[in-house]
């Protein structure tokens, strides 16, 4: 297939008929849908899947979700560059096919053991890593800056809470009323259908990025050394933090992996700044403001990762709610998420990004406070329901704002990398925060021998999430103040010149 460069974002978007545009946006949003669905399908039937493997250790159960988020967050670094080099459409279609393959394996693992299931979940994450940045890059390269692009990004963001919701619902339906492997086999069929439709409605978007077609030239263009150091470092650090709650920090391999991971991450930055001819992440393309935004996203989504895991644990283990009923209780997240995305799309043209970040970090923090203090026997309609009305504002204000800012901050040829950074931070923060929360849990639950001790561990993990959200509020407030000060200085300077 010959991929031809597109002349401009304006000319590409204007070639779509209304029906074509609807299908284009829908299929691209399915990339977000499939990625986030894989979080929901694991959460609601977690105990059912664990029981089928004879597993009840919370440290191992957390790997069912953390393993997926780990590879989504790490391999995005390379998949964004692959999209820039080989075409966003091609990598997007491959992502659907990859998820289909490993969803099939995840279902078949019922005939093996939990190790194969975790292995399949980890490899599913690579499919999500291929989908997310290339989906965002398709939108960023297709639409020019303006209100239309703002709203399209908001629609893309709205797919996240609704996909997680639908994933949890269908995961509960298949697991509770039928057989849990059908959850993953159905996913495989949907992913293959999306790949086929994508071939029909997504145009070839590619940039003539020159590189030597030899093997060594390809390694340089992909920044293979930087990618190996970055992915290796992130994976090892994450494994160390997620294994520590299971085996304890006294195990030598845990802290050895952590030390090696930190050294590899340091090597990654050295390679990117001083060695790589074509850095995986063009740090020169990003300003200090972008660093503030990414820091806020890391804190907020790390807080969210803890919240979503322990929310389901609290509901199913202490309130004795079935997976299907818990999914029904989770329904408010969907419509509120849609409202939040529409409002965010409207606000982005009328409010400074720093203020949007302050609001989103506040929502993350408040949502965790509400579930952390909720009494076990309190009615759902009190703090729990209010919590589900608040949390979507954190997700759907921070993600569209951050992706749009980075999309507008870089050239079209770096759209894949820009999208990669945001989704890397989001998914890696979720995975790493679960390891941090697990460490806090096992150190405060007195061994977890009684229900009160287990609940104490849950609340300790949620208090960590509150702290991360508060740190995000602090960083976003500094960023908002800096933006206001810079604007005032610019106005004063213009007045003096006049």
- Runs with pLDDT <50, length 5+? 1-11
Structural class: mainly alpha
Largest sheet: none
The number of distinct helices, counting runs of at least 4 residues, comes to 18
Which range does the strand content fall in? under 5%
CA distance, first residue to last residue: 57 Å
The average pLDDT value, as a whole number, equals 84
Q: Can you write the helix and strand succession as a string? A: HHHHHHHHHHHHHHHHHH
Rg is 22 Å
Any chance you could write out the topology, listing elements then pairs?
Elements: H1 9-14, H2 18-43, H3 46-52, H4 58-86, H5 88-108, H6 114-142, H7 147-177, H8 181-201, H9 215-222, H10 224-247, H11 252-275, H12 288-317, H13 323-329, H14 333-347, H15 353-372, H16 383-409, H17 415-444, H18 451-497
What does this structure look like?
Helix content is 81%, strand content 0%. The protein has helices spanning 9-14, 18-43, 46-52, 58-86, 88-108, 114-142, 147-177, 181-201, 215-222, 224-247, 252-275, 288-317, 323-329, 333-347, 353-372, 383-409, 415-444, 451-497. The longest helix is centred in the C-terminal third of the chain and has 47 residues, at 451-497. The N and C termini lie far apart (57 Å). It is mostly helical. Keywords: Membrane, Transmembrane, Transmembrane helix. It is found in: Membrane. This is Major facilitator superfamily (MFS) profile domain-containing protein.
């Amino acid at each position: 297939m010959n991929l031809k460069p597109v002349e401009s974002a304006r000319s590409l978007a204007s070639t779509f008929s209304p029906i074509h545009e609807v299908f284009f946006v829908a299929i691209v949003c399915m990339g977000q849908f499939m990625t986030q669905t894989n979080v929901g399908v694991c959460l609601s039937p977690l105990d059912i899947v664990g029981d089928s493997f004879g597993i009840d250790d919370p440290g191992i159960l957390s790997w069912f979700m953390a393993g997926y988020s780990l590879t989504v967050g790490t391999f995005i670094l390379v998949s964004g560059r692959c999209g820039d080099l080989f075409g966003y459409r091609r990598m997007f279609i491959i992502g659907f096919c990859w998820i289909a393959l490993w969803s099939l394996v995840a279902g078949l693992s019922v005939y093996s053991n939990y190790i194969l299931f975790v292995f399949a979940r980890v490899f599913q994450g690579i499919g999500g890593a291929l989908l997310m940045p290339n989906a965002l890059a398709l939108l960023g390269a297709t639409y020019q800056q303006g209100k239309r692009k703002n709203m399209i990004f908001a629609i893309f963001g709205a797919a996240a809470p609704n996909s997680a919701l639908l994933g949890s619902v269908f995961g509960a339906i298949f697991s509770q009323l039928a057989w849990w492997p059908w959850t993953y086999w159905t996913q495989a069929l949907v992913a293959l259908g999306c790949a086929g439709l994508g071939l029909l409605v997504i145009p070839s978007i590619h940039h003539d990025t020159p590189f030597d077609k030899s093997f060594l030239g390809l390694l340089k263009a992909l920044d293979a050394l930087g990618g190996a150091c970055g992915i290796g470092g992130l994976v090892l650090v994450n494994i160390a933090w997620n294994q520590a709650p299971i085996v304890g920090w006294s195990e030598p391999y845990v802290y050895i992996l952590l030390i090696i991971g930190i050294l590899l991450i340091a090597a990654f930055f050295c390679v990117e700044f001083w060695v790589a001819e074509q850095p995986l992440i063009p740090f020169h393309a990003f300003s200090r403001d972008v660093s503030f935004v990414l820091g806020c996203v890391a804190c907020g989504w790390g807080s969210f990762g803890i919240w979503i895991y322990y929310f389901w644990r609290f509901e199913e283990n202490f309130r004795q709610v079935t997976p299907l009923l818990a999914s029904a209780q989770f329904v408010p997240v969907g419509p509120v998420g849609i409202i939040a995305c529409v409002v965010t799309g409207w606000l982005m043209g009328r409010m400074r990004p720093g203020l949007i970040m302050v609001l989103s970090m506040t929502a993350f923090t408040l949502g965790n406070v509400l579930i952390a203090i909720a009494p076990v026997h309190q009615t759902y309609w009190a703090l729990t329901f209010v919590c589900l009305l608040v949390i979507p504002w954190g997700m759907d204000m921070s993600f569209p704002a951050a992706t749009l800012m980075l999309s507008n901050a870089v050239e079209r040829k770096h759209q894949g990398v820009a999208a990669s950074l945001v989704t890397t931070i989001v998914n890696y923060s979720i995975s790493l925060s679960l390891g941090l929360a697990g460490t806090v849990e096992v150190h405060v639950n007195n061994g977890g021998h009684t229900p009160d001790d287990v609940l104490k561990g849950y609340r300790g993990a949620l208090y960590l999430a509150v702290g991360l959200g508060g740190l995000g509020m602090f960083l976003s407030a500094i960023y908002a103040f800096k933006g206001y000060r810079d604007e005032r200085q610019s106005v004063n300077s213009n007045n003096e010149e006049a």
